[in-house]
TrEMBL record, chain A:
The protein's name in its UniProt record: Butyryl-CoA dehydrogenase
Protein's organism: hydrothermal vent metagenome
Keywords from the named record: FAD, Flavoprotein, Oxidoreductase
Coiled coil stretches, renumbered: none
Residues covered by the Acyl-CoA oxidase/dehydrogenase middle domain: 125-221
GO molecular-function terms, A-Z: flavin adenine dinucleotide binding; short-chain fatty acyl-CoA dehydrogenase activity
Family stated for the protein in its record: Belongs to the acyl-CoA dehydrogenase family.
Cofactor(s) of this protein: FAD
Domain Acyl-CoA dehydrogenase/oxidase N-terminal intervals: 8-121
Pfam families the UniProt entry points to: Acyl-CoA_dh_1, Acyl-CoA_dh_M, Acyl-CoA_dh_N
From TrEMBL, chain B:
This protein's UniProt keywords: Electron transport, Transport
Keyword Transmembrane attached: no
Occurrences of domain Electron transfer flavoprotein alpha/beta-subunit N-terminal (ranges): 23-211
Source organism (scientific name): hydrothermal vent metagenome
Name recorded for this polypeptide: Electron transfer flavoprotein, beta subunit
Entries under PROSITE patterns matching the protein: ETF_BETA
MF-aspect GO terms: electron transfer activity
Gene Ontology biological-process entries: carboxylic acid catabolic process
Similarity section: Belongs to the ETF beta-subunit/FixA family.
Amino acid sequence: MHQIAPMSEDQAAIKAAVEKTLEPFGDDYWAKTDETGDWPEEFCDAMAAGGWLGIAFPEEYGGAGLGLTEAALMMQTVTRTGAGYSGASAIHLNIFGPKPLERFGNPEQKRENLPKIISGEEKMCFAVTEPNSGLDTSSLETKAERTNTGYTINGRKIWTTGAQRADKILIIARTTPKDQCAKPYLGLSLFYTDLDPNKIERQPIPKMGRKAVECNMLYIDGLEVPKDHLIGEEGEGFKYLLQGLNPERVLFAVESIGLGFSALERAATYAKERVVFGRPIGQNQGIQHPLAKSWAELSAAELLAYKAAGLYDAGQDCGAEANSAKYLGTEAGFRACETAVLTHGGMGYAKEYHVERMMREAMLARIAPVSREMILNFIAERVLGLPKSY
Amino acid sequence: MKVLVPVKRVIDYNVKVRVKPDQTGVDLANVKMSMNPFDEISVEEAVRMKEAGTATEVVIVSIGPKQAQETIRTALAMGGDRGILINTDETVEPLAVAKILAKVVAEESPDLVLLGKQAIDDDSNQTGQMLAALLDWPQGTFAYKIEKDGDALTVTREVDGGLQTVKLATPAIVTVDLRLNEPRYASLPNIMKAKKKPIDEKAPGDYGVDISPRLSVVKVTEPPVREAGEKVEDVATLVSKLKSAGAI
């Protein structure tokens, strides 16, 4: 039910209800989580209690059966309230992360796990990236070797978000050596299994922003995985992962756009109130124009993001739109945050005004989960038909 | 016990209201609208009564433009059973609202009409009382606590200087105050369920009520800007300043 501009009655209701749910979590809450690094449990509990984690999952598992469009609207609303990525990343994985499980898992696996993920009872993390293979997923080194009862996984993963509190891990590992596969992306398998802390050492990575939602280095040493924790067919894991890429790009785009709008609103308010040389600084075009430009950039990227979401919901290819929206949305989001800091002058550098935190968080979305350069490569190659450059 | 809950669509309480340049009213263009916060409290109370087994059905009614349907839908997502939209784009004054509600009451025969004590747009605080007068029903206004007591209701009211407890025979009118409860947020599953709940659409004419205005607004203005104060050294200076200003 793609609509968004103007919003359908349901979409307006979703936006209003998410705003209400976020009301108790003001700027001070997010500033504090950013200072202490404490996971925003109360926020996650509120979102789970409101049924929001199941927005894009079928009703039979406790979800709402809505599409990417509504999921995107919800996530944009989360960052737009000022929660930024400290809020969005704490639940982001629940929104589309379990999709491979829903689409390729067997009925038993789905019945067992999806309701728990949606209710927030079970927390999952998603382990794909490795120190020696970032976007080159086919070069993964983590191995899953067959045993009598299933598999044993050994290897390393990096940037695994939320692994400190996860009970479950969705992990991709090589089950057939690359040189024995017809194609490099074959021979990878996907597992949804218990995160056994005795077999997986989790080290948080100190990072630039979003301290509340940690990313980890994982050292996996002899993780035993029962056979029935394999998702779908052995060797097909990469194909399953691909299914989730476009929705994730759209979500990153709108999250960054929401964050940008939030920073922009603060900057406009400050520019109206801050008086220098006897007039508000917002009366100067030197202040106005960068803010106006940011608004235009955010709005344009927003349009493309919801176009991509609409195509996805209609079952059509949205690769070009989703990638472009991710590129434009996260760049516009960062620029809006940067402009907001500059508009605030010295106070923009002070934590008290929250925009510096937003700027640090906005940087994240420019890099993860795919770099700007790889997006441009994709568009050059797949949309414009240019030769592959790497 | 069947409960009728009237709700009003008003400017969201977070929005900074702008007065129209011609001073005829406030600017509603592109402004976020929501359910009147006192009506959220009455919806919450009715839903709690239903959950506690004292209410059997919660009927939501709103008088206003087409978009007031969204406000009804919000109330249904909170737990209301069905809705009635009385569609009009005209301004409806409290007396006209009360007259329409009296007709709705005649049709629906509720045991209790639970209203917000006032709407935050015009702060009239009249509809509940006028409805009680038109129906000749007992009323408990500014409710702080509502308890069912056999066929009657015990209502604790917020009054100047404390709390007053009254006992009302049903059917009755109760208007709710701020501290009665804390309204819930609509959850996603309940928003989805609300889509399937029926909303009847009517017009003021269906009830034979003449809604033409009896009042005329002279003008609407912004509150005066507070002027900067003055800091003084000590109490003696303060007193002499106040004296010279003629304040004491």
